[in-house]
Amino acid sequence: NLLSQEIVLISLGKRKAAIANVKLIPGTGKIEVNKKPYDQFFKSLGFQKEIISAPASFLKLHQNFDIFVSVKGGGLSSQLCAAQLGIAKALSKLGSAEKESLSKNSFLYRDSRIKERRKYGLKKARKASQYSKR
Question: What is the tens place of the pLDDT at every residue in 18-50?
């Protein structure tokens, strides 16, 4: 069993412009984001901050690993989702059973929606000035 060995699981999660590097180390279940406790880092998000530990809680492994996340880019919500994906990817490296259950519950899904580029002649990606017939 991989839990009994001293292993380090490293993974990467992305969402919009946010990139999260995740490191899982066998431990007591503390979560740090950019060297701060996760509930302090995501303070303004309220109840949503529990999203970060959802993959570990789902597998009932949240007390078995210390999670260290380094995020940059994007906004807080994107960083939260990127961290969740990174944790899920790292946990999927434990074994095929874990990977299958995380995949079935769509924790390994990378949300590919990103900001659309602005086109010339338009004000934003799709916003144009009002059309005048005469």
Answer: 999 999 999 898 999 999 998 889 888 887 778
80 pLDDT tier (thresholds 50, 70, 90):
very high
Cα dihedral 90→32→43→57 (10° resolution): 40
**pTM, full prediction:** 0.88
Burial of 90 (0-12, 13-18, 19+ CB in 10 A): buried
Residue 32 bridge partners (DSSP): 37, 68
DSSP state of 41: H
Query: Do 11 and 89 contact (CB within 8 A), yes or no?
Result: yes
Question: In 10 A of CB 20, how many CB atoms?
Answer: 29
Q: Which residues lie below 8 Å from residue 103, measured CB to CB, with a gap of 6+?
A: 92
Q: Give CA–CA dist 5/21, Å, rounded.
A: 22
